[in-house]
Batch of 4 targets.
Target 1
Amino acid sequence: MIPAGTEIDLKLAVEIQSLATVKISALRNNVTISTGTGFFIRSESGLLGIYTCWHVVTCRNPNAPQKLLNGVPDSPDELEVVYFGHDGLPHTFRQRLYNGKGNAIWLQRQAVDEFADAALLPIETATPNAVAINDRLANEISFGNDAPKLEKPSPEHLLRVSADIFVVGYPDIVESRSSGLPIWKKGSIASEPQTRMPTFLIDATTNSGFSGSPVLCDVGRSRNMFTISKKLPLDLIGIYSSHITHDRYDPSIGVVWKMSAAPWFDCPRGENPFPPIVNT
């Protein structure tokens, strides 16, 4: 929870990626059942959406959708989103996940033989002063074949194994009590990213709550910060999904969905094979 009365001094060096990253609470009948992370993205026509994970908006296992996540009673019907705007103040809004007919509002791109654990939720609610992660990165990110034509290539082809990365999010066990802004967790690319797989692995110690976080990497080009200061040369390269465990062994390996596998605003509506009953 962001401390009451929190305000960010934007005269200081605040990264645009921090402002674009949002804290998500998944709600069922107005009760929080799970938490996660997301981040604002803006289309070339000005539409605003939130990227997060499919399992954040459904609370279900993407590899076995009939299974709910541990400790969750049902899929959520609504999200509560907290973000810092360019006015330096925290803002909160709620976004429904299903329309009056019970159809999902989020968009998704289907992966081979499984649900891609990435979702794009078009925002229906007014979001004053919201900052999208690509507001200063126009025409720098590729979203696959269904995306609008972009002038510059995706940085994915420049990624190399062992490169440093950052996962920016809101872990459950840590709160940035001094500011309410997200935590930056450092790691490295742990698998060869230049494959046809829609995912790659990272070596990073992450916790519950990071799901849906933007994953950033320096691929050698300059980037703007929100305020005037030394630039952080970081590219958006993926959406953090989950960490891999085996029995009691935790190798600190995480799964990241590439941006080329993430949905865009012209993708079809998503699907939850076991949706909650939504009151109309």
Note: The two ends are 30 Å apart (CA to CA).
Target 2
Amino acid sequence: MKKITLATFLVLLFFSGEILAQKTIVSSRTPEKVLKKVNSAKNSVSAKSTLTLTGSIEVAENEIYNDYSVEQLVNNMLISGCVTTSNIRYGYYDFVSDDDDDDDDDEGTWTWIDHNWSSIPGNRQIGYFNQNNTTFPIDEGILFATGRISSAEGPNNTGSDTDEMNRQASDPDLALITGERMYDASVLEFDFVPNGTMIEFQFVFASEEYLEYVETKYNDAFGFFLSGPGISGSYTNNAVNLAELPHNDAVTINNIHSAGTNVDGDVFGPKNESYYINNPS
């Protein structure tokens, strides 16, 4: 069996129902915020910086999907029929250091903890979204967030919007990508057995930290990790990160951005700008 881990920080993560013949174990990890702060079968990423977006997606406003459990979201929205899923869980990893501090680079233990499931759908860190007759490139899917998913819905009329969720919520692979302690993680993991040999999905990475926190200690990121027989990578369970740019850069705000000036007054040049879209308000 194979395992996929999905991860992002302060990100809107969207999966389409294109995951058709996947592998075996899927562990998807979602947004989390850094404080010093998937894989298509083709293993490719498309540049779409020329895309013009108008309007806002609709988040947590569908009564049917609002009543879904995490298992129902996975089996009805993330997976599209050609697989059997099991061991679905939604939560985060808490790092308990052997030292007095909680730095993820210390010796210690990662422990899984289930997220609380809010009775208010918009206050959750995972849920259903749809295009809402806008030009958003994905019709519908699952949204993962480091804050309340309702905060992802427009209009974007504030300079900065932050939801403090759970400072203990972290993830070992996301911390490895950024080299920083992670916070507010939203992690979805599950196993699956496919009827074929190909996995395909779509996602959009977004961050409230653009552009003012680029090249600072706040480095939002996204990862999609796959592990299983015949896979040998550097992440948990020998997983590989499928969410990488063609030249192996991870998907983070420090790796994908236009030129600008951050809150520290530091001027930075563009990096992988063809993948960056400056959303309208």
Note: The chain has a mean pLDDT of 78.
Target 3
Amino acid sequence: MYEFNKQSKTYTFKGSLSKYLLDNGVKNEDIEAASHKLLESNYRSFYSESTGVSEIRLISLEKVIGTNRSKPWKSVYDNINSVTTDGISLDYTRFEDCFKYLEDLGVDKLKESYINLKEPIHVSYYEDDDVYYVDTDGNHRTLVAMLIGAKQILATVDHYKSDLNKKLQYDHLISKFKTDYKINKIYNAAGSEYNLLDCLIHNSKTKKLNIEFINGKETYVVNNYNLYIENGNLQNAVRQLSDQINDDYRKLSLLKFIPKKLREVFYKRKGNERLKEYIR
């Protein structure tokens, strides 16, 4: 079902995943929903505390916001259609197993099977936001259940409440940064909106980000800011982006002293590529 792409080092579904699903009885509207549902990271875990409550019950798949082995800010469909080979992400052979069940049982009976799992998936339930995150067991089953349009799945549910002081500190830090620099949105290199709270999750990773600034009633995007995420430090991440923007502003203030013919040379120097994208 999947074939290996040497260039991207991914296993991709051979042929059209959409056509395969339609041929096996999955509704087009459910495929579309899975294509548009972007998964989130588990950043809430950094400002939440266990309530001690744990139970086994059915949960709404509509309220599942992500899984610990999927790629955040990619859709359910894309996470299944193309799987990386880094050893810690999803396993394409597990999806192949799920699809064999789809072929053998049919879509309706497969949906029903998720309600009667012998081994429930495991989720964190964030009470304040009323959302679930698959934190250990059940990544592949959950994603396929969402892909085929299942409504519920059986889960072991651990309850969590937000530490409001921590949450407010993080929210204030991000809000102040966006206000100070008139930022509307932040995007990752793939074009998906990026939540700076994701910095709490990742460690020792360099990302390329694009920032949409507000200019009066309009917005414009400046590309290729570098963000090195270290030790889940949100403060450091905000400081890095602030320093890059401030450095750009300083260079822009010098441009008025440089003849227009020489400005292209200035833009091409390392670190200056972004400057022509600003509107000030």
Note: The CA atoms of residues 41 and 90 lie 15 Å apart.
Target 4
Amino acid sequence: MNNSLIITGASGFIGSQLMNFIKTLNISFLGFSRQENHNNLQWTKDYMDIGSKADKNQICIHLAGNKIISSVDDREIELTEYLAEIFGSNLVYISSSYVYGKNHKSLITELDSLDMVNNYSRRKAHCEEIVINNSGSVLRLSNVYGSGMTNNIFNHIYKEFMSQNKIVKINNALNTRDFIHVSDICSAITTYITDIKSGIYNIGTGEGTLIKDLCNIFAAKLKVNKSAYHVKSISQDDTMLVLDSNKFRNSYNWEPKINIDAGIASWVKDYKRELSDAK
């Protein structure tokens, strides 16, 4: 096979952005998706069929997974076991910072203990263990955002302001999160696959943003006067989830390039265009 890179979940938010990014680098790849009618993707009814279309010498970036927090579906674990057997040290599993739980008040390193608070984080942690036991790699991502994502805090904040209510209601406005632009994630992944050193790596900005402050940034980009709204947090939960990515930064001379202010400005512009195109 001429394609040196395999991507599962290629039609998803990160997967589609990653493919576009890789195209600019002239890296050959084969993207797999369970969704039909996606141009330039290999449709598969079951990812367990990948073995007949790939070989162990290829690098596999495993993005396909169940993002439903409450789901008890273990097929993601079974698939990871299957891919780990095929690709071994060439398997790069894309995981989440949520395996660390939420009880933190400082930057989180790869040495911090895990706290599986729901089925989603338990699945991720189980898959991580499978990958590492087969000499593969795990990239734990912080909160990824960018054009094309749906049903997330950015969409919610935007809709709250567009409703022109004086009270902007946010479930967890007192939480602090590490938001990283998807293009920075793509640059980290493509940098990593050029020189894979198996292990676990945090990928984030290392900078926390209070969700309440995120609302204020949105207000500025939407030209909403501060006196015209008030952010109300439904919950008084004030957890912090911010990653220390120094291990990856130092190993690969990598830095995120898009700060949250510029990232939101770009997101708002793209989202307005998407809404206009949909009319």
Note: Helices lie at 13-23, 75-87, 119-133, 153-162, 182-192, 211-221, 246-252, 260-277.
